[in-house]
Amino acid sequence: MITAVFMAFTTLGFSQGYSGVGIKAGVNYSQNGDLKSEVDGAINDILSGANQKTGYHIGIYKKFDLPLVYLRPELIYTQTLSEYEVEGLLGNFERAKLDLPILVGYKLLGPLHVFAGPSFQYVIKDTFNDGFEDFKLENVQKDITIGMQLGVGFNLNKIGVDLRLERGLSANEVDLVNTKITNINDRLDSRPKQLIISLSYNLN
User: Fold this and answer.
1) Regarding the domain delimited by 2-202, which CATH topology (the fold level of the hierarchy) does it fall under?
2) pLDDT-derived band of residue 23, with 50, 70 and 90 as boundaries?
3) Is the dihedral of CA 10, 161, 115, 78 positive or negative?
């Protein structure tokens, strides 16, 4: 009986697909939070959310098969892009970051699986596009934040495709300063809301 139970757990654990090291890349459709304007100490919402723009990501992962589930940490370089209208002008907020999702997955049926887990991010650089010479970004609240990812994937031999949603959980504002108008300070909520589409390949 004990042997049968052990074999069942082993079979389930190793039926989650290819384990080992792999590479991945894809696109992400990102939308950041509100843009607020502070004028002489009074803060008002001037834009709720942002327009989605297409970014990209590339990275590596390691997949560990466990009884019933699998564990998949990833290290991803990500560029996100969101569009805001600031004082009548359209501007793109671009963020370069390192993401570390730690995902737990479960096989549903055949090659189909679901997963979820926390995602830690380290902000490398923020920029506001070059058409806005009078604005600069400064005073990012936190360099390291945490979010949550959940998604669904499909494996075909060593090739995988997954679709996931990410939501930033840690409040993280960055100042968007107009260098010519000193009494106005715009504050941007840089927490991401992303739709992420990835293609992966297992190297083992």
Assistant:
1) Porin (2.40.160)
2) very high
3) positive
